[in-house]
Amino acid sequence: MMEYVHKRKSLYKMMVFIILYMNVLLTFAVIYILLDVTDLGYLKDHYASNAHQEQPLDYLTRSLYFSTITLLSVGYGDVTPFGLARAFAMIEAIIGYLLPAVIVIQFIPFNKSENMRDY
Questions:
Q1: Is the pTM of this model over 0.90?
Q2: With contact defined as beta carbons under 8 Å apart, do 31 and 88 qualify?
Q3: Phi, psi (deg, nearest 5) at residue 40
Q4: Residue 4: is its pLDDT beyond 90?
Q5: Residue 44 φ/ψ, nearest 5 degrees
Q6: Which end of the chain is more exposed for a tag (fewer CB within 10 A), N or C?
Q7: Residue 48 DSSP class
């Protein structure tokens, strides 16, 4: 029975972190769109034409793509932030580096009595 409870708690924690990642990703994508619309910062796609980058759907897809690549610390370099978007990209990258550590810490048992108390 304890193993079943432990598996459910682990699954619950993983779902919480997936939702947290998606929330951070979408929040920063919206920030990048707002920065682009208000001319405070923008994302430049080096492989797309200027006409393509002016399309409304491209704001959304470029922002989601850049947010995902930045949060997951991949950083291909095909999309570059300018203006205030650079500061938000740095904040997102720091969050992307810290979240995996937080996730790992959540699954490490620190104290036997603490673990037994949970059941």
A1: no
A2: yes
A3: -95, -20
A4: no
A5: -105, 120
A6: N
A7: S
